[in-house]
Every structure is written in C-alpha cells, then in structure tokens.
Please model this.
Amino acid sequence: MKILVTGGAGFIGSHVAEACLRAGHEVVIVDDLSMGYRSNLPLGARFVEMSITDEAFTDFVVAEKFDTINHHAAHMELRVSVDKPVHDATINVLGSLRLLEAARASGVQHIVLASTTAVLGEFVHMPATESHPVLPIAPYGVSKRAMELYADYERITHGMSITTLRYTNVYGPRQNPHGESGVIAIFLERFMNGAPAVIHGDGSQERDYIHVDDVAAANVVALEQRVQGTYHICRNSAASVNDVVHALRDALGRECIVQHGPAKAGDPARTRASHDLFSSCTGWMPKIDLHEGINSTAAWFLRRGAE
Ligand SMILES: NC(=O)c1ccc[n+]([C@@H]2O[C@H](COP(=O)([O-])OP(=O)(O)OC[C@H]3O[C@@H](n4cnc5c(N)ncnc54)[C@H](O)[C@@H]3O)[C@@H](O)[C@H]2O)c1
Model:
C-alpha cells in the first residue's frame, strides 16, 4: 500500500511510519517540522515538508493518489490550546477537515485518525469504554472531538472508510522531553541531567500509560484491516506518578530527586480506559508492560545522551 503519514517527523507518527515500512508498505511523510525533527524520519520513507493547513496540501494529496492515510499531524499542547484556541483549531479542525476532503476527492480507500481520550473530559466511569460520555474540558479535546465528528460525517454521508483511534498517555523513544505532557520523557531527561523533577500534588494521580510500539502496531492493524469506527488504544492498567518515578529509578540505577509542587487545577485523580472493543475486532493486544517499556525507553534516552 502507498501510505501517507502526516506528522511522521513527530514522536508517534515516526514510529507508525517505521512500522508501516517494516510491514512492507510504501511510506510518504508530510510534516511542517513545527514540533517534529528530521532526525526522527525513518530510513526508506519519502519526506515532504508541508503544512496540512496549506492549500497546496490538498493538491498534493489528490496528485499522489495514496491508498491509505494515517493522520498524526496535530497541535497538542494543552496549555497553548487554552491560550490560543484559534491556532489549535486551525491545525486540528481545519487541517484535519482539509485532509478528509482531499482524501475523498482523490479516492483514498482508508484513513486512520489519531485522537485522544482527552475528548472524554472527566472520566466518570473506569475503565472508560467507547460509550463513555464525551465532554472535553480543554480546547485541545474540543478540536480533536471536532475532527472525530467530521470523520463520522464523512463515513455516514460519503461512505468513507475511517478508523479513529483514541490514545491514552503514550510514551517511548523519541518523545519530546521539552513538551508539557509526556511525564516519562520529561522526568527521564531531568534525572539523567541530575536535576530534580517536579511532581504536581502528591504523585498518587494515576494514568493509563501505553508504549508507542503498541500504538504503532494498532495503527498498522487498523490500516490493514480497515476497521470502521472509534476505538480506545490503551492498556487498561493505571500507574501513579510515584510508580513511574520508582520504575525510572530502577531503570537508571541512580538516585532520582523529586520535588512536589501544587496540584494542577482540573488534573483528574485517575484515568483508565478499555481496549476490549478494538482487541475483539482486530485481535490487537498491548504487549509491553510499564516496567519493560520504561526500561527500554530509558536505555534509548541514555544511548541518545551518550551520542
Ligand atoms: N503523545 C500522546 O500521549 C498522545 C495521546 C493522545 C493522542 N495523541 C495524538 O497523537 C498525534 C501525535 O502526537 P505526538 O505525541 O507524536 O506529537 P508530536 O508533536 O511529536 O507530533 C506531531 C507532529 O505533527 C507535526 N505538525 C504539527 N502541525 C502540523 C501541520 N500544520 N502540518 C504538518 N505537520 C504538523 C509536528 O511537527 C510533529 O512532528 C497527535 O494527533 C496527538 O493529538 C498523542
């Protein structure tokens, strides 16, 4: 298959592109490098530097005649989305809509969209299934929800074939340690530099962490099996920030200093989601547990630091 991966110079998109290449597909990456890096681009992929918000992107998609599109390009800094919701929506809503329209015009056979369980807002029951109420509490979740709704419209009204994957907290090699989210990458970078990491609150808040290799595998399955609808991609297993710090200490084999700051307003105490629907439809299962994933991620950060 000839696959377009948008956001393929970023953290998750680069792993998806790599997994698609490994599965024998032809991969073209579009990224404007606003948050991605050339060094993330996998060997064997063709790279085009372009924004998905540009008119030229429509012409490009139509001309290239991709079989499938995997859409990971997005704005994803929550705080920026609060300060600059128009910027966030321009990329996540209008950019995604441009992609959907271009895909329909060019006869793309299947699309996989990267979404987030942030569209759910407060988790009112756990593990959250796909029938959980959807009430995003930040502009980032709102823009991703809008993308999901446009995908539903394209599916229902125009018969487009689309999988929407909602991830929980993804971690692994190549995650940007200078972003506002991605606690494992942020803490790793600080501990490796002998700097203290700041835990907001007492560290008991729990998240459903999933390794990027499991996420990339789910994307390949969704592209190849062309499953329809919206699915949660997660581990259905919650770990606290304190658990993460313990695992990082074990992985790095050194003292890791933490400081406690005030809890973030609106930070939920616990999030956990169910992947049963996607697993029963496709056979995909997450394979990497948190300790194994943190060990291999720490090894990657240490190798990169030594380069
Ligand atoms: N990291 C997570 O835990 C997580 C969780 C849920 C969902 N997601 C979703 O997964 C996707 C990838 O996230 P990530 O963590 O890899 O982020 P990332 O910032 O590493 O990757 C996003 C990529 O998109 C590119 N990009 C941004 N705006 C663009 C534009 N206008 N045109 C072309 N390229 C553009 C960036 O340069 C970057 O390379 C996003 O859609 C995000 O919403 C991520």
